[in-house]
Amino acid sequence: MEALLASTMLAMGASAVLLPFSVGAQSETEDARRTFALYLGRELMEEIISKPFDDPAGGGGLGPDGGESSRALFDNIDDYNGYEDGYGKSISRLVGMNGQIINGAAIEGLQREAAIAYIHVSGQDSGDAPNFVRVEVKMKYKGDDLLTLRRLVHKPIDR
């Protein structure tokens, strides 16, 4: 009977000692996931805003133009509208700027979505071409919002 009681007490004591370590490990995994999400979101944002404001081929409308079937072929900012990759998306892997597939346990379940919107500022004639575009990169984990990055990009001034 004493051995059974001692075993029970030891099990309870061990679980009390190990619980903070398991919670800490889980927290560390979540922190790593958020760090990778921020990095991957920033990477996509930088790629998008590095593209020209206007389409060099003169195409119009949001989203990829004809023949721009992959991200490597996008030639201006608005081509990224609707782009998504990662967990549960048509492009199931996260792909870096150089086209390399990004792997790792900390990024399993991450996904990216890009949304582009043309913005008319106050006082600007809505018939004129917009001078601003809002770029939004949303990072999710297994479908749940993790973080959102937004940038407002101004059309270069012709001189």
Textual characterization of the structure:
By secondary structure, this protein is an alpha+beta fold. The chain has one domain. The protein contains one helix and six strands. The strands form two sheets. It has a four-stranded antiparallel sheet with strand order 1-4-5-6, covered by helices on one side. It has a two-stranded antiparallel ribbon with strand order 2-3. The N and C termini lie far apart (92 Å). The relative contact order is 0.16.
Overall number of domains: 1
Dominant shape: elongated
* Overall average pLDDT: 83
Q: Give the percentage of residues in beta strands.
A: 15-25%
What is the structural class?
alpha+beta
Radius of gyration from CA coordinates? 23 Å
> Major sheet: order of its strands?
1-4-5-6
Counted by DSSP, the helix tally is 1
N/C terminus separation? 92 Å
Helix content: 25-40%
Question: Top keywords for this entry?
Answer:
159 residues, 6 strands
Sequence-ordered SSE layout with sheet pairings:
Elements lengths: L1 H48 L34 E3 L7 E2 L5 E2 L7 E10 L12 E10 L2 E11 L5
Antiparallel strand pairs: 1-4, 2-3, 4-5, 5-6
